[in-house]
Design brief:
The chain is α+β, with helices and mostly antiparallel strands. The chain has one domain: Histidine kinase-like ATPase, C-terminal domain (Heat Shock Protein 90, 2-Layer Sandwich), CATH 3.30.565.10. 36% of the residues lie in helices and 26% in strands. The chain has 4 helices and 5 strands. It has a 5-stranded antiparallel beta sheet. Helix 2 runs antiparallel to helix 4. The chain starts with a strand and ends in a 9-residue tail after the last strand.
Length: 143
């Protein structure tokens, strides 16, 4: 199992750094195009939610990412430093968004494209999003 841990300050440049790190870790896996897009969409939505809704763009906070890659799955925990209990309650009570909406679809997209997702309050009080994406043999040519 390959395990990676990253910490990003809550600043605009962090999203690009996050993508660079994820791409450098996952590029050797040679995912199918469909799987690559699914992975990047799910992780992008979770990271953006941590940045915007969890940490509320507060530059004095951070986003922690733990990424594990094995032959059959990718698991990712994205943890913000916001107020997790309030976030979890909103997520649990969230109604499905309309496809035409410009925002508010992130949780729906994560739930749809991830094989499993859990939202929980982290031990420090932030929101932890735990994502699992299963890898099928036909989708990966090398790990």
């Amino acid at each position: 199992m390959a395990q990676y841990n990253f910490t990003y300050p809550t600043v605009p440049d962090s999203e690009e750094a996050f993508f660079d790190d994820i791409c450098s870790v996952l590029k050797p896996c040679r995912f199918s195009k469909d799987l690559w897009h699914r992975v990047m969409l799910v992780l992008s939505e979770a990271f953006t939610n941590a940045y915007l809704h969890g940490n509320r763009k507060n530059p004095n906070t951070a986003i922690n990412v733990a990424l594990n890659v094995i032959e059959t799955e990718i698991t990712v925990d994205i943890v913000d430093e916001g107020v997790g209990r309030g976030s979890i309650d909103k997520i649990k009570n969230k109604k499905p968004s309309m496809p035409s909406m410009e925002s508010g679809r992130g949780i729906d997209l994560i739930r749809h494209y991830a094989d499993s997702v859990e939202f929980a309050v982290d031990e420090k009080g932030g929101c932890r999003v735990s994502i699992k994406l299963l890898l099928e043999n036909k989708q990966v040519t090398k790990i």
